Amino acid sequence: MLGISGWGCWLAYVFCILSTILCVIYGVAMWNSGVEEGDEAEIIKWAKEEREIEEQF
Amino acid sequence: MVWNVVLVIIYFLIVAYLGYRGWRETQTAADYMIAGREVHPYVMAMSYGATFISTSAIIGFGGAASLFGMGIFWLTWMNIFFGIFIAFAIFGKRTRRLGHVLDAHTFPELLGRRYQSSFIQGFSGIVIFLFMPIYAAAVLIGISRFIEVYLHVPYAVGLLGFSLILALYVIWGGLKGVMYTDAFQGTIMLVMMIILLVYTYVLAGGVISAHQSLTDMAYLVPQKLAKLGHRGWTEMPRLGSPYWWILISTIICGVGIGVLAQPQLVVRFMTVKRDRELNRAVLIGGIFILAMTGIAFTVGNLTNVIFYKAFGKISVAIAGGNIDKVIPLYIGKIMPNWFGTLFLLAMLAASMSTLSSQYHAGGTSLGRDFFEKGIRGERIERGERTVFVTRLGIALSILLCIIFSLIFSPSIIAVATAIFFGLCGATFLPSFLLGLYWKGMTKAGAITSTLGGFIVSMIWMGFYHAKEAHALGIANYLFGRSTLAGFPWTVIDAQFIALPISFILAIVVSLFTGKLPDEHIEKCWKYL
Question: Domain locations in chain B?
Fold first, then answer.
């Protein structure tokens, strides 16, 4: 088992790699999705206030 | 030596240039959004990663890995699965939409506006302001230990010297979260960690051979640790033993769950314009976290193999019992000189990006959330006094962080980080998550859950969990005993007890108290 004796540690090691693969697959599959929205006005308002806060520092 | 100094100077020149460019061309996340442009997913993910991962994760938890063994990989799994996949792909999208529609700019403000409660915003603000320095101290101790061991500078001198440089960085615009600076720092961290992993595996004879060598060292576990449940570095600790509870409840769950309610990370979701940016960041973020914590924990474990081969001692013995020194000693004694200097830069980068975001969160929590909303009650025109209190908050956060760093005991980095993450989880997570998904969550439910999670955490730390109860001494002063209960309660982390209570309070109280106005719920759910 990859030189790891305990199944608990082995599972953790394998799960880390599998979760990363999941992230990669999700990122590739969803690369172009998530664009259609109608909250433009709120986002711009939010961003302007955010910049104001940043400028206070 | 000359080359080392030259490399350090080049690094600071690049950071200064990127900071100046960011300041001149105004390239913070908000500027991108106003200009209608999108942040490149690589920059977005690196910026988040550089904020998330610090010297605490690499030096503190890397050192903890050398002691606890490979069971700590469950934390890497939680960081990737919950901290990236679930956080970005699921919670992040709703957080972004809710934050924009409620015009919230800090985590307490998001909670306060979701529940129409000045109290929640003010209380959350003061909790973050008071306790964030504990986590910031973990980060500062990490870089200071590295400076101490690698550059042979006394700990306190390194700590104060670095704090001075950081203060200049912060004053010069480091708090603005300039995307390019963060992405540059994230990239340095990524490259150095990959080199560290490859070099270590090669040194230990390859992947499987390295793991096997570690497995074969089980007989070297000191008797004292074996009695506490340590069964070797490639075995989980004995079920139900003190080591098992510490690893599972504090190190793995404390940080792995608490990450979902980290104030400085939650606000990052609002700094993107579209869900698409979050989707894309999942890909890069997953790889980045594996490369950071996965490598730190792998190398942390394998230091035992390398140190034993070179010096005939396991890591904790080489470090004189202070696990915070294991990674710095490994870099100093085993890795080539050129690598050590570049790694120092990576650690400077890691700590600077995280500390600046922590100080930012501390300052806004005191100024915007506690002072403006909590004390003055209602929404008012933001005046100079708020800006003054926010700046004061940053200064006090820095000061508290330095004081904690000087008085904390050795081997504290992982524990201090877990305390803050656990406290955030127990106090904020139910209100945050239920607020995103449940229309029936009420103001009273959110207040009771927030207060309940915080109070139970404090009681548990003060009177039951041995690590904090011993240090605080309150139980001893009041009752003549260092803790009010025996094993296993003394090793079960506060979040393990407080988070379920906080969730139950949120649900039960919400079921029996008045709902928030329909028009407010409609507004919150406009884009959810």
Answer: 2-411
User: B407-436: buried (b, 16+ CB within 10 Å) or exposed (e) per residue?
Assistant: ebeebbbbbbbbbbbbbbbbbbbbbbbbbb
Question: Which pLDDT does position B172 carry in this prediction?
Answer: 66
- What is the tens place of the pLDDT at every residue in B46-69? 877 887 888 999 999 999 999 999
Q: What is the pLDDT at residue B41?
A: 75
- Spans of all domains in chain A: 1-34
Asked: is B2-411 a CATH 3.20.20.60 domain? The reply is no
Taking the CA of residue A37 and the nearest CA in chain B, the distance in Å comes to: 8
Residue ranges of chain B whose pLDDT lies below 70: 1, 19-28, 32, 34-37, 171-178, 376-383
Q: Is B80's CB within 8 Å of A23's CB? A: yes
A33 with B232: Cβ contact below 8 A? no
**Subunit contact B89:A31, Cβ cutoff 8 A:** no
Q: Measured between alpha carbons, how far is B247 from B263 in angstroms, rounded to an integer?
A: 24
Quick one: chain B helix, strand, coil %, rounded to 5?
Answer: 80, 0, 20
In tens, the pLDDT along B311-363 reads: 999 999 999 999 999 999 999 999 998 899 889 888 988 888 889 888 888 98
Q: What is the ipTM of this complex?
A: 0.92
Contact flag B276-A9 (C-beta cutoff 8 Å): no
DSSP code of B319? Answer: T
- Is the distance from CB of B396 to CB of B427 less than 8 angstroms? no
Q: How far apart, in Å, are the Cα atoms of A8 and each of A15, B82, B301, B307?
A: 11, 19, 15, 25
* A positions 29-48 inside 8 Å of B (CB): 30-35, 37-39, 42-48
* The predicted structure's pLDDT at residue B428: 97
Return all residues near B35 (Cβ < 8 A) that are at least 6 apart. Answer: none
Interface test with A, best of B24, B44, B77 (most A CBs within 10 A): B77
Distances B62 to A29, B148, B242, B294, B523 between C-alpha atoms, Å = 33, 17, 20, 9, 45
